[in-house]
Structures are given as C-alpha cells and as structure tokens.
Amino acid sequence: MHLLDGPRARGAFTLRAVMSPPWAIDIRAGAALDLIVVTSGRLWLATGAERIEAGRGDVVLVRGPEPYVVSDRLGRRPDITIEPGQRCVAAGGEEVHLTMGHGVGTWGNDPDGEDSMVIGVYEDAGEVGRLALAALPPLTLLPSGAVEPSLVDLLSREVTTERVARGALNDRLLDCLLIMAVRAWLETHPDTGPNRLGARHDPIVARALDLMHERPEHPWGLEALAAECAVSRTTLAARFQRAVGDPPMTYLRSWRLALACDLLVAEPALGLESVAARVGYGSAFAFSAAFKAHRGVSPSEYRRDRAA
C-alpha cells in the first residue's frame, strides 16, 4: 500500500463552476482537500498566507480545512460563501445553490461566463489520506500540462453528463487526477526537504517504507528493517530521518495507528483483537493503550464518535 492509496473519493462533490466578473467566493466548507482545474479564463486564490494566480489548464490543490477565497481579481470582496456540506449562501444570507444552477453539474453566476473551473472535493480523506496530504504544501499550483490533458477533459465532460454510474466514474477520475498532480509536484520539487511522499528517491528508505506499508502486522524493529534493507541500523535511522523527517519506529507507529483509525470506521463489526493483529499489535490491550496515547481517546470511543 502506498500513502497515496489513502485519499479516495467516495461520492465526492464534483462541479463545473462558470462565472462572469466581478465574482468572489469564500470557501469555508472545511474539506480535507479541494482540487481545482481552471478550464477557461483566469482566477486568483487566496489563503491566509498565500496568493496565487491560475490560468487555463492549471491545477490547484488546496489542503484543508482552512478557508480560502477564489475570485476573478485579488482583493475582491466575496459575495458568496460555501459552508460545510457545500451549502451556498449569498451575502444576504439566502441560499443560492438552486438559483445559480445551470443543468447537470454546472453552477455559477453566468452559464456563459468567461471564467470556468472544475472542482473536486475530498470531504474526508481518512487518516491514511491525512498522512499523505500533510506532506503537501497548503497550496499547490501545477502549470498547464503537468497532468494529462485528456484526463482533465474527460472529467470536465463527465461532471456535466447525466449518465449511468456518473458519480462512480467521477470519483475514479478525480483520484487519478489527484495522484498525477501529486506525482507531478514531487517530480518538480525533489529537494523540498523531509517528506513522506518524496522520500522514495532514496532506495534504502523506499525499501523500508514498502516493508512497513505492505506488512504493518509484522513485528518490525529497527534491526529487522535494517537487515531487510541490507544496511546497518545506524545507516537506516540516519537516512530515514533525513528523508522522511521522523525516525523509522515513530513513522511505523503513526502508519499503524492511521490504518487502525480507518479500519475502525470502515469495518465497524471488526473486534479490537482483530484490528490490533492487522496493524501489528500483540493484543487488544497493547493496541488500545498505544491508540489512546496517540489519539487521546480509546479505539471504541473513536469508532463511536466517527459513527455519530
């Protein structure tokens, strides 16, 4: 399993937005990640600390849950707010989701507007997904051509087409687009520093990551990992820390507990002993103690809270 297997679209919110200036939208939906492809015109995107301009074909990744403003001009005062659950509210407080709709999957202040974009929203990426997304900058701009244009075109068409399995296909296309975008970013930023996603340029670290990801249930220790990688413990520890930013055993604990979080939610009937065994803990007691120390709540409380 690769870290990028984590963020998976499941009934993701996808939309083609079409706008004519002046326009500005305050995004406060709190999603884990928004993916925006500019299909015509230009737009500005502003977070609390960054400002970027994007043109046709550019792809923007916005790591949540912090709010941001997207507009035709920097500094424009928003007249629409997107709230949690994709609720669209005008400045006066009235909902505008339906009044600004223009057929299947299309929304905006002008169906023939010069500025358009396709938006895909990952409301909840899961804990494994959060590990992956945390390695990205809060705002990522990829220039036109960085991802396969035909994939962008296909998603743009499918978002606005009422056909069988439209939602399922949009989810898969969105996942493909996200993976290609992250890969393109990693390839153009090889020296970003310690990074869980970019650490694979070191073959020793890549091997250690593969072992942890593919066999989390194995009783790994630093010595066993180093032996599998054919290096000393000191060499593995130093190279792993330099590439990933965490010691190997610290990363392994985070990985196991992220997997456990997702298992607790995805398989509510799975007992704690089974969850513990799948993620490398010898007993439910040891697993529960590690989970509470890491998350602040017990596995049962976490499962109950997420189901609420």
UniProtKB/TrEMBL annotation:
<dbReference type="GO" id="GO:0003700">
    <property type="term" value="F:DNA-binding transcription factor activity"/>
</dbReference>
<dbReference type="InterPro" id="IPR009057">
    <property type="entry name" value="Homeodomain-like_sf"/>
</dbReference>
<dbReference type="Pfam" id="PF12852">
    <property type="entry name" value="Cupin_6"/>
</dbReference>
<dbReference type="InterPro" id="IPR018062">
    <property type="entry name" value="HTH_AraC-typ_CS"/>
</dbReference>
<keyword id="KW-0238">DNA-binding</keyword>
<dbReference type="InterPro" id="IPR032783">
    <property type="entry name" value="AraC_lig"/>
</dbReference>
<protein>
    <submittedName>
        <fullName>Bacterial regulatory helix-turn-helix s, AraC family protein</fullName>
    </submittedName>
</protein>
<dbReference type="InterPro" id="IPR050204">
    <property type="entry name" value="AraC_XylS_family_regulators"/>
</dbReference>
<dbReference type="InterPro" id="IPR018060">
    <property type="entry name" value="HTH_AraC"/>
</dbReference>
<feature type="domain" description="HTH araC/xylS-type">
    <location>
        <begin position="206"/>
        <end position="305"/>
    </location>
</feature>
<keyword id="KW-0805">Transcription regulation</keyword>
<keyword id="KW-0804">Transcription</keyword>
<dbReference type="GO" id="GO:0043565">
    <property type="term" value="F:sequence-specific DNA binding"/>
</dbReference>
<dbReference type="Pfam" id="PF12833">
    <property type="entry name" value="HTH_18"/>
</dbReference>
<dbReference type="InterPro" id="IPR020449">
    <property type="entry name" value="Tscrpt_reg_AraC-type_HTH"/>
</dbReference>
